[in-house]
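This part of the workshop introduces the protein records we will be handling. To make this concrete, we reproduce a full record directly below:
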Amino acid sequence: MAYTIKVNGKPRTVDVEGDTPLLWVLRDVLDMKGSKFGCGMALCGACTVHIDGQATRSCVTPISAVGAASVTTIEGVGATPVGKKVQAAWTEIDVPQCGYCQAGQIMSATALLTKTPKPTDADIDAAMQGNICRCATYGRIRAAPWGSRLSGAVAFGVSRSSSMIRPSYRRWAGRRPS
């Protein structure tokens, strides 16, 4: 069946079964590889996209449920003012390690800051819950949304050399496994 969905501001028509997960439509049909498959059960956050601005796990969202809603992916989030700031903060703080989870992390952080420009700790915890980072860069991930709301991480007092950002790296740097 043919579905026309709005992705990153452009209408796209795809011919897939209605129960096809949005993630597979994005990755396999539309060749948008930014959103990742992690678990297939909406538990890890690697597949997060925005549907009408709401962070949504695309691995469990059937294409038939999208309807006329607007889908924003990691490929398009930088075109929004908040998304651009979050991506800049991610780069400034040097958040990614392997990078696999980062699209989902950025999408969740952007949805949070779009809805709540001055989030509390509880807001950040709730918005980022369920986004799993196998490399455990949570300190840097945690710092990025705070910094991005103030036009860059440096304005918030966070830099690449901040001990707040890389405590585990500092503790283990130079050590070799025994």
